[in-house]
Amino acid sequence: MSTPLEAATIAGVSPRTTRKAVRLDADTIVAAAVRVIDDGGLDQLTMRRLGAELGVDPTAVYRHFRDKDALLLAICDRLLGSMFDELEPQDDWRGTLRDLSEKAWATYQRHPHLADLLSRSPEVLEQHERLTEIGLGALRSAGLTDRDAAMCYHLLVSYTSGLASTSADPSPPGPPFAGWRRSYALLPEDEFPNCVQLAPVLFPEPADQFRFGLEFILDGIARLAQTAA
């Protein structure tokens, strides 16, 4: 009994034509590109590698994206959109801003190879605008002036994206925080008394740093809103 491959050859049909056709669209390509990057890093995203992931000729991607830069922008927009889709309705401005920041943080952590790219997306994207609208609306509802609302929004975005992109570590086991604490604890105490005494609480996990700083910023926004009232 012949194999399917032999049967196709005997019938005069190219074995390549027996593979199920892949229906390509922009969303399918972006999802595959994210998988490639998540698996091996941003450098692994080539049209050849993407074509292999999709099971198509690499040139097929160019029917939907003019070049790799256009594809990267679409990836950023998709990830920003995932933040938007995960937002939960909140009762007050503080809850809204906290939820917005936490969803952004979680997205960075899920895609560490894309964290830096996402934090410095070179163009204003559709999802940028939708997220910005929510953030500014929350800040204005707190009672801030227009200028203060804009300044606080940029502060919050810079803090969240900056800390998230620098702490997103795509290569386990991650930063050796325990080792750093031990090193500080072993310093000469007469020369480094503060480092030695605070060693057990230095270098907290990035998520703990993020949440502490986020609440600190939200407290500052609340105080600023009180002065504007």
Number of β-strand runs: 0
Order of helices and strands: HHHHHHHHHHH
Distance between the termini: 85 Å
User: Could you say what the CATH architecture of the largest domain is?
Assistant: Orthogonal Bundle
CATH class of the largest domain: Mainly Alpha
The main β sheet shows up as: none
The proportion of residues forming helix, as a percent range, comes to 55-70%
CATH homologous superfamily (4th level) name of the largest domain: Tetracycline Repressor, domain 2
Task: Please report the number of helical segments.
Answer: 11
Number of domains: 2
User: What's the alpha carbon Rg, rounded to whole Å?
Assistant: 24 Å
Question: Given the helix and strand composition, which structural class is it?
Answer: mainly alpha
Average pLDDT number: 87
Strand proportion, as a percent range, falls in: under 5%
Apparent shape: flat
Spans of at least 5 consecutive residues with low confidence: 1-19
User: What is the CATH topology of the largest domain?
Assistant: Tetracycline Repressor, domain 2
Question: What does the model show?
Answer:
It is a single chain. The chain is mostly helical and 229 residues long. It folds into two domains: 65 residues, Orthogonal Bundle (Arc Repressor Mutant, subunit A), CATH 1.10.10; 138 residues, Tetracycline Repressor, domain 2. Helices cover 65% and strands 0% of the residues. The N and C termini lie far apart (85 Å). 21% of the residues are buried. The N terminus is likely disordered.
